[in-house]
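Entry for the shared binder. Reason: the reviewer on the internal report wants the predicted structure included alongside the sequence.
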Amino acid sequence: MNTDASSKGTPVPSNRKRTIQDYKAARKTEQDKFGILETPYLHPQLKQYRQNLNQLSYFSNTSHPKESEVWSWEINSEHLKYIKSRESLKILWVNDVCDLFSMCDKLAQCQEIGIDTEFDNTLFFHDMISLIQISTHNEVFLINPFTVYPYLKDKLQPILLDENIVKVFFGLDDIYYFKRDFEMFVFPVVDLQSLYMSFKSLKSLKFDQLVQELLNVSLDKTYQTYSFSRRALPLELQRYAADDATYCLKCWKTLKVVIGDI
């Protein structure tokens, strides 16, 4: 990524900015429940990267390393095969390089993974991915990018570009911000939002609506606007974040049956 200020390129997006009213209400409720938000430890390399990023007026475009494969990739019968899942998934934190190596070794054995992120603009000039959630059918990982930043791209990028592992997202915003915050690309991708909207000819779709329709589960979105840069992250927020990645895989599991019947 080019971190020099430029008058050309793609403007830094602002679609995740919260309204002032919602922001104040969320901060008040959060502080009452969990206490005052304190600045977490940030690795020095991450601090420097964010300082450079915050000086940009525009975010430069960079070509996807597998651009031709992105345009030609399609869901096939192998992707639709049934994969057994555990009823209850254990939450595992990834806080250091050893945790990261262990997680990536496990992810390399998967055929599909669910991915979600949590953003926070409380402590940064631009919003930033403050938590990465990756779910397998056996466990769900919560990655702390503040501490593993120097090693994240080197270890996770091969997983994110492995054509034998399908990455399941809801919406494409997370993919864009992986590129911005960590200079990482993703392939291949199943976007549940666009896929289901296409099936149902919908103009819009929220994640909780998808989960309700496919799984008959009502998601509690109480913590949607809370500060996920908080460390240690309260258990309620851990579960909230883990559920989003887990339900990505569960929804995909149900959609595979629908696709297979077409």
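Summary line for the report: The chain has a mean pLDDT of 88.
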